[in-house]
TrEMBL record:
Ranges annotated as spanning the membrane: 12-32, 56-74, 86-107, 113-138, 145-169, 189-216, 246-266, 272-291, 298-318, 324-345
InterPro entries cross-referenced by the UniProt entry: ABC_transp_permease (IPR001851)
Topology relative to the membrane: Multi-pass membrane protein
Pfam family, one: BPD_transp_2
Keywords: Cell membrane, Membrane, Transmembrane, Transmembrane helix
GO cellular component labels: plasma membrane
Protein name, UniProt field: ABC transporter permease
Organism: Swaminathania salitolerans
Location relative to the cell: Cell membrane
Keyword Transferase assigned: no
GO molecular function, one term: transmembrane transporter activity
Amino acid sequence: MAVISFRRIVIARMIAIGIVFLLVAAGIYGLGLDPGMVGRLVVTSTFGTRFGLENLALYMTPLLLTGAAVWLALRAGLWNIGAEGQFLAGASAAAAIGLSGGANPALAGSPAAFMSSSLTLVLAMTASFLAGALWSALPAAGRAWLGVSEIITTLLMNFIALYMVYALVTGPWADKVTGAQMSSARIEVVLPAFAGAVHCGWPIALLAVAMLALLFRRSRFSYCLALCGSNPEAARYAGIDVGRHVFVTLLLSGGIAGIGGMIEVFGTVHRLQGGLANGYGYLGIVVALLARKSALALVPAALLMAIILNAGIVLQTVQVSASAVLAMTGLLVFAIAVADDYAAWSRSGRAS
């Protein structure tokens, strides 16, 4: 089996991304707009302003975590399509902690207030991990011991989570102060910000990716996981409990996505609301596919998707539909898939 070099993959993908940008430019020209002007607007709005850079970090944070969740499952040969639902489950559990343990104005600025807020954040993060893991437990058990496709079960769990959130924010957790539709009350305890709107969730997400990279470089678990994903029969022959590894992997995957939900609630929107996930779970699949077998590659992959999302906002200012983001994402995935296949084909052709 031929090994595809990193350099070959990078070159093929850069060509694919260039082709996608040319197609997008052609589409913009077809709408009667100047592609050069639109391109400059996207670049200056994204990289030339503090607001744009902050937006990139805020978009990257959930994408890193949902991407890491899907990537971990892929390493075991599993497709976790349910990161969206696990994200929402984690957000709901974290919101429950936040709404029940709000900040006390009488203690504002005191050490007691700091300790109380810190405890709330730790409890919320723990609850979000457990909720995300629990949300993936049923698909994990079905896949591990009954052979039920995790693709179908994790996907279906997304819809359950979505309607659960809507039931909560329009029912018992509805905001009775401002009357905002499909939104809970504001959560007073928040993740500390350190650069404008950029909060501590961003370095936490980067740390999670670094820990995954370290795990897959230095642990026996990563070896067993890779073997279970590439050759389950060989793993069983080697005495590895494939079912247990599948179950644990999907639980960890769901937990990571759940933490993403907590960070979005406590760091960005400060409440549970309808549409909170914003497609981050599904975009996490794209991030994981772009990263291939490298956990550290999740960072540039999430950055690329964050740029596309930010570009979508800018494009709306020149009357381009928001659905253009979906089209760009689809083109990007298709082009990179073709590029990867071409790189593998050309390598195997030379090897033979």
